[in-house]
Amino acid sequence: AQSVTQLGSHVSVSEGALVLLRCNYSSSVPPYLFWYVQYPNQGLQLLLKYTTGATLVKGINGFEAEFKKSETSFHLTKPSAHMSDAAEYFCAVRVNNDMRFGAGTRLTVKP
Amino acid sequence: EPEVTQTPSHQVTQMGQEVILRCVPISNHLYFYWYRQILGQKVEFLVSFYNNEISEKSEIFDDQFSVERPDGSNFTLKIRSTKLEDSAMYFCASSPGQNYGYTFGSGTRLTVV
After folding, report:
1. pLDDT in tens, A30-84
2. Is A36 on the interface with B (CB under 8 A)?
3. Nearest chain B Cα distance for residue A42, angstroms
């Protein structure tokens, strides 16, 4: 079965700094890849997804991610962090009708 | 924007009691899911449901759990005899098809005492 590894359970950046959240996946077939964000006491909100086509995908709130098959990675980036980006971020991989999540990365943004 | 609705937002139950968590998926979606998240831990897959039957379930989804789509709009998760370790946030999700992401509800926090 497919799986996801998120490197770093906690990432801290200063406001205005680059955000980089790492995700590596394992799948025996071409996967669909997703990033979700969870704000405190809320559900999961889709940030962006990769299914086919362009490997650099743009999402909401200025986030983007690049699918790199050779590295089995789907890292999430944002050029300039904002205080409102503080949340838990989950990478997920979907094969057919089965989506599995990584353990999550908590992003803290310092003023 | 269409939403997945879950009720109640918080439920407290005594150990051994049955609970039913309710979800109203987005109306034109065909695939339905339940996930759970124990406090501070990862989001775990429980079950997927398509064409009025379970299509996949995890090892967590044992005989204590069941799902139903009783009336074409609601999608329920029943836990027959709750245990303390069932305390978690339970998320319902739906999807229109396999090329799409899931839309999640805001969750039901289940506390078993």
Report:
1. 889 999 999 887 888 999 999 888 899 999 999 999 999 999 999 999 999 999 9
2. yes
3. 6
